[in-house]
Design goal:
Elements: H1 5-11, H2 13-46, H3 51-115
Helix pairs in contact: 1-2
Length: about 120
């Protein structure tokens, strides 16, 4: 029972095909009943629904989708600005550190040459 479907299909091809045939045959026999059940359920569901409400729901969903998309885009823009600010701070601190290090280098070099 612990075999993967690929190994089962490779080693027990006949068993896999027989199982697929039985499942498809069962679906073939039950499909008309399932279709009739779905049609009745749909008729029962739409019996008291007006045409206007069928049109209002997709518009409502569309408006919600637009709002969601806009909020995601706004959040993305905000995070880009924050990332840019963080990068600018990191760049400024690195350039300040390199400036300080460069400013210290000649004085250290002068001190070393004076000691020799």
């Amino acid at each position: 029972w612990a075999r993967s479907p690929e190994n089962l299909l490779r080693q027990e091809t006949y068993l896999a095909l027989a199982t697929a045939f039985v499942l498809l045959r069962l679906l073939y026999l039950l499909f008309p009943y399932l279709l009739e059940f779905a049609c009745r359920a749909w008729r029962r569901y739409t019996q008291h629904v007006r045409i206007g409400t069928l049109w209002e729901r997709p518009l409502c969903y569309l408006n919600k989708a637009k709002q969601l998309f806009n909020s995601i885009m706004d959040a993305r823009k905000r995070t880009n600005f924050q990332g840019g600010a963080i990068n600018a701070r990191a760049w400024a601190s690195k350039s300040l550190a390199s400036t300080v290090a460069l400013g210290d280098a000649p004085s250290r070099g002068a001190g070393l040459s004076a000691n020799h």
